[in-house]
Amino acid sequence: MNTQRVTIKLKNPNPLFEEWLLEWRNKEKEKQSKMYKCYDNALEAMKKYPLPLETGKDCMILQGFGTKLCNMIDDKLKQHRKHDVQKSNDNNLVVCDEPNKKKQKKSPSKSEYTPTNRSGAYAILIALYKSRLAYDVGQQLKNEIIEVAQKYCDKSFMKSDGSSHYTAWSSMSTLITKKLVIKEGNPAKYSLTDEGYELSQKLDLQLNENEDCAIVKKLDIPNKKDVSKESNGKKLPKQTKSKIKETTEETVLNDIFLTAGTFHIYLLVDKQETSGSNKDPVDDETVYELNKLNVDYEVRHLKIGDYAWICKDRNSGEELILPYIVERKRMDDFGASIKDGRFHEQKFRLKQCGIQNLIYLVESIDNNKHTGLPLTTLHQAATNTLIQDGFSVKFTDSLKDTLQYLASFTRILINIYKDKTLMACPKEDLINTSIQDDLFPLMTFKEFNISSSKNKKFKVRDMFIKQLLQLKGLSVDKALAITGVYPTPKALYMKYLEISNSEAENLLSNINFGKLNKKVGPVISKSIYQLYNLKSY
């Protein structure tokens, strides 16, 4: 019996809402009313949103939607249901018969070009690819590319080797000629073409496959069976230490090296999650439940997040933080954080903290009667956090349910990591890991807490991002994309000086952001222009 796999793709998630917005916009345009721009902005936001919306109130999370417009949609929806409850949405579905759909074979390129390993071209492609993955930034300036690329190249990007005047950066002309990279704008910005993206993806895949093996080979790490009981896995012998310092100074931090059986895993609880020192710990619900669940934990002041996990050396007390962190929000605080802007700012700091697996935990309270925002709005904000920001999202029914989840998660992490080999690694050199790996590079807890501090010395780009996040409708992904092209306010302002006011207002409109490569749009572009253009004051 032949079975065929049928895939249903949602072509247009909200056709009715878009139809009504278009109708209202056209009416205002006929009246020559400026109100049509409001409907236009709302329509653009609606088209970009990938999920179905059930009511007008659900639209509150989108840019350009206020209470009045949401109520208009709800009123229109009531009328529509009265007239045609059974209206079909079949026009919005595209059925693809995958077995019968022949894949189009790409015509082979005229010259199968593959750059030499650790050459300038190789490093540039890797750098552009990694920046695109990490920040969803399509275009990069020269200095931003060099900053990432140098570690993947044996030749300097800044100085020639003496035998010629060429540097590793000279390979950029080759990549442009072979149509793997596009150069645009002034100052010049570089981005991967489709062919360049495919090639760099292959190079990065090969790099990731060999990276762990390369680290083990450089360190000459002994097998677990060969580790002597006397060393306890706390520190390496002197000969191995000297070899580490010679070959992997950028990878190993203070030679902290933990093997199976030499460390203990603890759940870290932020002080603000407990009642503090003024109250008897026995009376604290969080402390009481964790003790009842027999969880090994420590209460500390975390600079970011509410819960994390550390591996502590049994003898030296050295601490490495596991690649998991939890941000807990009660429903009422969740709504308040969206209103006052903490929601986007906290997500940005979590994404910059160096922890690979980010968990956003939303906890119900009092049947969620007083949340400050409609529940549908909060659920969609959580959905955006899952889809657009790449967090894992967990809903719990109460604090007790939250602590049971954390207790179970702690036991899972103990089972995963108890037989692993752990080593300290600077934040900037961390690589993504899988639970199947035997060797795990991890940050020290001290570095994690210092680098996540609100009061640390921020780079100009970080401060620029924090400023942008204060603007309504400007998400973390949009801020990262904008600063990827213009990393400082000065760079943006100098560009404004070069062009006319009308061009300046729309300068940022076509910058792509996020996994879906959406555009920033004219409304935000104009708002930023008005904020940073000194001529407007």
TrEMBL record:
<comment type="function">
    <text>Interacts with EME1 to form a DNA structure-specific endonuclease with substrate preference for branched DNA structures with a 5'-end at the branch nick. Typical substrates include 3'-flap structures, D-loops, replication forks and nicked Holliday junctions. May be required in mitosis for the processing of stalled or collapsed replication fork intermediates. May be required in meiosis for the repair of meiosis-specific double strand breaks subsequent to single-end invasion (SEI).</text>
</comment>
<dbReference type="InterPro" id="IPR047417">
    <property type="entry name" value="WHD_MUS81"/>
</dbReference>
<feature type="region of interest" description="Disordered">
    <location>
        <begin position="81"/>
        <end position="115"/>
    </location>
</feature>
<feature type="region of interest" description="Disordered">
    <location>
        <begin position="225"/>
        <end position="244"/>
    </location>
</feature>
<protein>
    <recommendedName>
        <fullName>Crossover junction endonuclease MUS81</fullName>
        <ecNumber>3.1.22.-</ecNumber>
    </recommendedName>
</protein>
<dbReference type="InterPro" id="IPR027421">
    <property type="entry name" value="DNA_pol_lamdba_lyase_dom_sf"/>
</dbReference>
<keyword id="KW-0479">Metal-binding</keyword>
<dbReference type="Pfam" id="PF21136">
    <property type="entry name" value="WHD_MUS81"/>
</dbReference>
<dbReference type="Pfam" id="PF02732">
    <property type="entry name" value="ERCC4"/>
</dbReference>
<comment type="subunit">
    <text>Interacts with EME1.</text>
</comment>
<keyword id="KW-0234">DNA repair</keyword>
<keyword id="KW-0378">Hydrolase</keyword>
<dbReference type="GO" id="GO:0004519">
    <property type="term" value="F:endonuclease activity"/>
</dbReference>
<dbReference type="InterPro" id="IPR036388">
    <property type="entry name" value="WH-like_DNA-bd_sf"/>
</dbReference>
<dbReference type="InterPro" id="IPR042530">
    <property type="entry name" value="EME1/EME2_C"/>
</dbReference>
<dbReference type="InterPro" id="IPR006166">
    <property type="entry name" value="ERCC4_domain"/>
</dbReference>
<keyword id="KW-0227">DNA damage</keyword>
<dbReference type="InterPro" id="IPR047416">
    <property type="entry name" value="XPF_nuclease_Mus81"/>
</dbReference>
<dbReference type="Pfam" id="PF14716">
    <property type="entry name" value="HHH_8"/>
</dbReference>
<dbReference type="InterPro" id="IPR011335">
    <property type="entry name" value="Restrct_endonuc-II-like"/>
</dbReference>
<keyword id="KW-0255">Endonuclease</keyword>
<keyword id="KW-0460">Magnesium</keyword>
<dbReference type="InterPro" id="IPR010996">
    <property type="entry name" value="HHH_MUS81"/>
</dbReference>
<keyword id="KW-0540">Nuclease</keyword>
<keyword id="KW-0539">Nucleus</keyword>
<dbReference type="InterPro" id="IPR033309">
    <property type="entry name" value="Mus81"/>
</dbReference>
<keyword id="KW-0233">DNA recombination</keyword>
<feature type="domain" description="ERCC4">
    <location>
        <begin position="266"/>
        <end position="366"/>
    </location>
</feature>
<comment type="similarity">
    <text>Belongs to the XPF family.</text>
</comment>
<dbReference type="Pfam" id="PF21292">
    <property type="entry name" value="EME1-MUS81_C"/>
</dbReference>
